């Protein structure tokens, strides 16, 4: 018996969580390395961390969570993903700047601000990735040939599959 929609969604959430951990670990290594080792200010450190951490996050989510292979669609995948990453960058940078203004260069607080900012966006981002960015096109459109041999396309209603 094929898996239910709920089982598929649960498995995707587990994979998405694992891919997110890879992105968080990468960004936190970069963030703390910039703050502690390179002695950079928190905001530039956050920008570097978010930018570098988004790369493994995108690649792992694309290949493992959403099972996409082949060439990357710039307009359908890359641009929207980086748009969401940019929103996370803006939010986390604002929070990091506020933490720095209040408590100064406190690496653990800066790290917590970065992680907390992305935690807020985590669930919403999953549904955008799952239903828009990496959803197979066949989930959006079905072909139907009428009695005269004409091909018709129509949208699929996901709620009633």
- Label the overall shape: elongated
Structural class label: mainly alpha
Instruction: Order the strands across the largest sheet as they lie in space.
Output: 1-2
Strand content: 5-15%
What distance separates the N and C termini? 16 Å
Largest sheet: 2 strands, antiparallel
Uncertain segments are 137-141, 157-161
The number of distinct β-strands equals 2
Helix share, percent:
over 70%
Give an account of the 3D structure:
By secondary structure, this protein is mostly helical. It contains four helices and two strands. The protein has helices spanning 5-37, 42-65, 74-103, 107-133; strands at 141-145, 151-155. Strands 1-2 form a two-stranded antiparallel sheet. Helix 3 (74-103) packs antiparallel against helix 4. It is elongated, with a radius of gyration of 20 Å. The two termini are 16 Å apart.
Annotation keywords:
single chain, elongated, two-stranded antiparallel ribbon, 161 residues, mainly alpha, 4 helices
How are the elements arranged and paired?
Blueprint: H1 5-37, H2 42-65, H3 74-103, H4 107-133, E1 141-145, E2 151-155
Antiparallel strand pairs: 1-2
Briefly say what this structure is.
This protein is mostly helical. The chain has four helices and two strands, in the order ααααββ.
